[in-house]
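Below is a typical protein record.
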Amino acid sequence: MTALTAFSVAADAPLDTPEQLEEQLRFIGATRYHSLHPFHALLHGGKLNQGQVQAWALNRYYYQSTIPIKDAVVISRFRDRDTRIEWRHRIADHDGDIGTEGGIERWIKLTEGLGLDTDYVESAEGILPATRFAVEAYVHFVREKSPLEAIASSLTELFAPNLHEERISGMLKHYDFVNPEVMSYFSRRLTQAPRDSEFALNYVKQHAKTPYERQLVCNALIFKTNVLWVQLDALYHAYVEGHVPPGAFVPAMP
């Protein structure tokens, strides 16, 4: 097996047209997106205690707070001004701007609402090693791979709105320590993610001109689904199965 096909979901799937590329990307999402992970079933079904939800929010903050750094790296890969202009609103979406709230601030509302100290959350001292490694691997990927692959790795946004809807309804239903205000990050992403994913999908369909390039796009999306999946694997191992590594956040007894 070559390095190119090592990540392939269906190595024999035709990738001769932009439409076949989109079909394969949606297949990857349907079979590999982290909405399928058992940790999410526990989270959305009200099966976790507050400490376990805190651990999820704490670790996910490191990912969320790194997204604008990742997007700044993506922008740096492009000489094309129009692409840079289009992409830079993603940084504002997460960082906010002077006098406006961004996604990182909305995530802090979540962690504060769950009872976590903000200085501790922002320090990233208590995150799992796998969280750190996965997030840093994502930044490394967009820096080292081609600009086409860097954009393609963001295509998990195609599948995010359904997950956000499930998360909002499930967590509000099952947890008395959650309210609509602390869930505002997800409510906002219901409109942001479709806008972002539409641009990225159109970009890869237009610029991946050969079956080889379309396979690179598919592999980039698979890499990103792995980045998301492994973070939930680590959370499950640590906070459901009880194997918290040294130095990581330890919830108070429920």
Q: What stands out?
A: Residues 1-9 have pLDDT under 50 and may be disordered. The radius of gyration is 18 Å. Residues 211-240 form the longest helix (30 residues).
